[in-house]
Amino acid sequence: MPVARLRPISRHIAAVDLHGRFQVAVFLVRHETGLLLVDAGFPGWHYAILTAAESLPQPNRITDIVLTHAHVDHIGGAAFIARHCDARILTSEPEKAFVQGKSLSHAANGLLPRLVLAVNHWTQGRRVDAIRVDETVTDGDVVHGLRVIAVPGHTPGQIALWHERDEVLLCADALFNVNGAIGYDPVPGMTSNRAGARASLVRLAKLGCKDVAPSHGPAILGDGTERILRFLGDAVV
Ligand SMILES: [Zn+2]
User: What residues does 15 pair with on adjacent strands?
Assistant: First the structure.
């Protein structure tokens, strides 16, 4: 199990860095009556997330778990944390079936993603406790101050979350920031639709966010949009 480190991002948001191979971060977002958790790490990482939440000032019960997409490193601890905290689980309608166990290979575009996602489902999916989604959200919805932004491509129903008061964009896997470089998912075949991923990143760039926090690697603070635009200018899809 990884050791979690809390990393403040803004007034209401703290990242929980889970020091695994993929520099996974989940996010605790403070609201009036508790905490909203964005994503839940790999299977078995729930205690690290719960310990991080409990170290924050009260009220610190996780009331909501928003899953940005169905990859195993984002949903692994969700079922346990939901049971432990009596929290509701939310995701987008197009992602719901995949969060609840359907293989993402069914919706992949191209042979490599279909193969990689099928193998991933067979080897990793079985490690995830069954998840029941309580509620779905759609583009434009606001949940405890987080505006939902549909960013399909990496998966069919991935969502990003824009914290309007803190002006921070939690961009999920629409953008990675690992090993000192920003870009798309570095694992070949994990992205269902590369053209869709690029279109979503263009959409995020148009929001003009200064502070962007990906789910892999450190936050990009101050020059988020410039960095994304520079990457899009260079990126070959
Ligand atoms: Zn992912």
Answer: 7, 27
List, for residues 36-94, the tens digit of each pLDDT value.
999 999 999 999 999 999 999 999 999 999 999 999 999 999 999 999 999 999 999 99
pLDDT digits (tens, 9 = 90+) for 156-187: 999 999 999 999 999 999 999 998 889 999 88
Owner of token pair 């019960």: 61
Rounded to the nearest angstrom, the distance between the alpha carbon of 175 and the centre of ligand 1 is 10
| Architecture of the domain made up of 5-235 | 4-Layer Sandwich (3.60)
pTM, full prediction: 0.95
Strand segments (E) across 151-201: 159-163, 168-172, 176-178, 181-183
Tell me the CA–centroid distance for residue 104 and ligand 1, in Å. 11
Distance 69 CA to ligand 1 centre (A): 7
CA 155–ligand 1 middle distance (angstroms): 7
Q: How far does residue 167's CA lie from ligand 1's centre (Å)?
A: 23
pLDDT at 21 over 80: no
The alpha carbon of 56 and the centre of ligand 1 are apart by a number of angstroms equal to: 27
Report CA(173)–ligand 1 centroid distance (Å).
Answer: 5
97-152 pLDDT, tens digit each? 999 999 999 899 999 999 999 999 998 888 999 999 999 999 999 999 999 999 99
- Taking each helix axis from N to C end, the angle separating 224-234 and 194-207, rounded to the nearest 10 degrees, works out to 150
Q: Is the peptide bond before 59 cis (omega within 30 degrees of 0)?
A: yes
Ion ligand 1: residues, CB within 5 A, are 71, 173
